[in-house]
Amino acid sequence: MELRIGVIGCGAIGQDHALRIHRKLSGARIVALNDINLAATHAFNDTSRLDAKVYENYQDLINASDVDALLLASWGPAHADQLLACIAAGKPVFCEKPMTTSAESGLRVVEAEVQAGKKLVQVGFMRRFDAGYRALKKTLNAGTIGDALMVHCAHRNPSVPEMYVGDMCITDTFVHEIDVLRWLLDDDYVSAQVVEGRKSRNAHAGLHDPVMVLLETSKGIRIDTEIFVSCRFGYDIQCQVVGEIGAAFLPEPASVALRLEGRASTAIQTDWKQRFIDAYDVELQEWIDATQRGQVNGPTAWDGYFASATAEACVEARHSKAIVPIRLAERPAFYSK
Ligand SMILES: NC(=O)C1=CN([C@@H]2O[C@H](COP(=O)(O)OP(=O)(O)OC[C@H]3O[C@@H](n4cnc5c(N)ncnc54)[C@H](O)[C@@H]3O)[C@@H](O)[C@H]2O)C=CC1
Ligand SMILES: O=C1[C@@H](O)[C@H](O)[C@@H](O)[C@H](O)[C@H]1O
């Protein structure tokens, strides 16, 4: 039976996800849409020929009897209340990152799910579904480079809009590394430090760019990440794990090598949507399949809470210029691995 999905938040990624479900993936259908921008949602419904029902408020959409599961792609601050409504209705929900914008609201989602007694929430950390990260994890698990000691990462965007300000480099951008490195290393973080360097002339007024985040894990692994969102040259995601006897690198996206006019070159991607396009497909297809089996197979509400709590500690570390311990609530047995 087809999974009937309602989408809440029909902006950039909400539309992308709705279209990939409509055109590319199997086992599901978009039957309902909601967004605070109703006119744009009607226009999207018409131009994409989804033929979905447009709801004026998200509660009615969540409670509709012909909606089996929800896809949340509204702005981060709206996620917590919308997730709590999905859990109250007992419906599975895929929620884009960040799950919540504070540790406190993340914990409320975790507690509501535990109370409901059934895992319903999956968080949109798509890098866990990327073929390159999966290959890297396989290499680490095989012990090929010995135990991991250090990780060097970079998260570079060519530019960001004027509305991207303040600590979004951590809460919106670095949150991907927070999740994927914890999954990759199978380890939790114990402390965070954030260092600001020289500001790039290309960073807009509301932004100090780049910044560096240093994390330490419970096994003592040291992670450094450069976050540089006005780097100009491309959307460049780097991850190098250094082990006792070798180093393992995240594969670069495939690109034809050119020898031309006295130069050898390969292209660097410039658009985050293209860099992880296959990962988004795999992520949502696996979510549809698992939901139909009544399971959650991807990042859970606990992972979402963990990421929000770590991001919060990083923000505190940035402003205090101190090394901040990462303290979490006790993990409920409900989320045991
Ligand atoms: N996994 C990934 O790589 C990516 C994830 N995201 C995440 O997806 C979410 C949406 O991001 P974008 O699509 O880029 O933003 P966007 O601004 O293009 O779209 C957000 C939409 O949500 C709507 N909205 C806001 N509050 C709402 C509410 N209370 N109820 C219903 N609709 C509401 C807005 O009107 C807008 O249409 C964010 O949480 C963002 O961090 C965004 C880009 C990439
Ligand atoms: O989630 C995303 C954006 O919201 C964020 O702004 C970008 O920095 C990330 O690379 C992208 O994956």
TrEMBL record:
Residue span(s) of domain Gfo/Idh/MocA-like oxidoreductase C-terminal: 137-324
GO molecular function terms attached to this record: inositol 2-dehydrogenase (NAD+) activity
List, for all copies, the residue spans of the domain called Gfo/Idh/MocA-like oxidoreductase N-terminal.
Answer: 3-125
Q: What is its EC number?
A: 1.1.1.18
State the reactions this protein catalyses. myo-inositol + NAD(+) = scyllo-inosose + NADH + H(+)
Q: Is this entry keyworded Transmembrane helix?
A: no
Q: Which PANTHER family match?
A: INOSITOL 2-DEHYDROGENASE, PTHR43593
The record describes its quaternary structure and partners as: Homotetramer.
| Function, in words | Involved in the oxidation of myo-inositol (MI) to 2-keto-myo-inositol (2KMI or 2-inosose).
The family classification in the record reads: Belongs to the Gfo/Idh/MocA family.
Task: Please give the name of this protein.
Answer: Inositol 2-dehydrogenase
Organism of derivation: Rhodoferax ferrireducens
Tell me the organism's taxonomic lineage.
Answer: Bacteria, Pseudomonadati, Pseudomonadota, Betaproteobacteria, Burkholderiales
- Gene name as annotated: iolG
